[in-house]
Amino acid sequence: MLNYSTSVVILAAGKGTRMHSNIPKALHLLAGKPMIQYVINTAKELNVKNIYLVYGHQGEILKKILKDEKLNWILQADQLGTGHAIQQVAPFLNDHEDILILYGDVPLISTDTLRRLQLEKIDKGIALLTMYLEEPFGYGRIIRKNGEIVGIIEQKNATKEQLEIKEINTGILLIGGRDLKRWLNAIINHQAEKKSEYYITDIIALASKQNCPIVAVHPYESIEARGVNNHFELAQLERFYQIKQAKNLLLSGVTLYDITRFDMRGRLEYGCDVIIDINVIIEGNVVIGNRVKIGIGCFIKNSIISDDSIIYSYSVIEDSYLGPRCRVGPFAHLRPNSKLEENSQVGNFVEIKNSYVGEGSKVGHLSYVGDAKIGENVNIGAGTVTCNYDGVKKHQTIIGDDVFIGSGTYLVAPVRVSSGVTIAAGTTILRDIPSIGLVYNEKKQIIHNNWNRKKKNKESEV
Ligand code: UD1
Ligand code: CA
């Protein structure tokens, strides 16, 4: 826990011009979650006194998305730079508290690193988070004299020699409220792209001139302090983050066939000896049991998959439950609220929605099962459809145990089929089948022997 007399300022008013987007930069998604949400969660974990969020550009969208967060919203109507942004918060800050400055576009900063800032900060000093980058392009560079930090120079204002400096400003710093306010009053504006801008980074030179002790602290991992200014940097950060998550899974026993082709946009709970093939995406909260195998290109969202189940390639599973030893796919789609009991099977090109499939039952090929309850040991033939929608309302199909449904059957809901019934291929079921037996529609097969298919003549062919 950071000192309780610490408040956090999160900067998120910038236009994000380099994103070329109508969405505020801080709301762009990293592993499925808005970047700003990571920063807010970290700030909350620190248990600080107040969290101030500086907003401006498209602030209304930001407010809507973050409506459940306890934040002090500070408007920066004109985005005149990071220094100007903090000037907007200054009147609310206490002289005797420490202020931690975070950025809406530096999402992966960790609580451990921020605690380190606090430990290292000297009384009446500044703890500045810096790091060394082989490719420092775009970041402010740390200027040192005799080893001491004396200032920060922005990329666009740096000389050729300064651009060679590999120590960069992450933007994150911890400073006393009184000092911050004093130096904020003294920063001057820079003319940039036809408007004046005030840089928070300028307080470092002012502090240094007044012999304020400035300590540099480095993040535990460089990924924590990476800023996102454009889609390329966002894509890079996404991959760094995904590889980090993949590494954690691998180190705790999950097999991933390729760490660069795995995406987790949420949380995964897993058992022992789980195998995940390439291009699998996990979203929301997913639980997978022991010895589960997930094939190439599957998308699994908010679902539970029990022990020994196998999901074959290119299947989509959303808000569903699979009991043990189920087999799904390839190319199957389990839509929300589907429940497959133990040892059931859903095969190629089958869509299941809001349905229950009993133990040992099989829906093998090319079928649609919606709003249905299927008993145990049922076999549903290829191309069977539950006609659940009459154009106005959805209706239920109920099928008992040990039912055999031949291929190409239409079950027009609402309809009930009793246990043990056999339905012949190509039957349309319009009414309930209350007792055991064979059901089929009377149809005639007619053959016209004197019939010739029309043929295209050569000239009319295009
Ligand atoms: C800033 C730092 C740079 C540092 C880098 C780290 C300054 C002048 N430069 O540069 O030294 O290396 O971050 O990532 O501080 N913002 C506002 N209001 C504004 C302008 C920006 O709230 O008027 C917010 C943005 O929404 C963003 C953050 O401040 O969250 C940083 O702004 P950005 O324009 O991205 O600064 P950088 O060029 O990355
Ligand atoms: Ca930035």
TrEMBL record:
Binding, UDP-N-acetyl-alpha-D-glucosamine? 11-14, 25, 76, 81-82, 103-105, 140, 154, 169, 229, 335, 353, 368, 379
Q: Name one GO molecular function term.
A: glucosamine-1-phosphate N-acetyltransferase activity
Record's Gene Ontology CC terms?
cytoplasm; membrane
EC no.? Answer: 2.7.7.23, 2.3.1.157
UniProt keyword Magnesium, yes or no:
yes
Which Pfam families does the record cross-reference, listed alphabetically?
GMPPB_C (PF25087), Hexapep (PF00132), NTP_transf_3 (PF12804)
Q: Which family does it belong to?
A: In the N-terminal section; belongs to the N-acetylglucosamine-1-phosphate uridyltransferase family. In the C-terminal section; belongs to the transferase hexapeptide repeat family.
What is the protein name stated in its UniProt record?
Answer: Bifunctional protein GlmU
Biological source species: Candidatus Erwinia haradaeae
Its taxonomic path starts at: Bacteria, Pseudomonadati, Pseudomonadota, Gammaproteobacteria, Enterobacterales
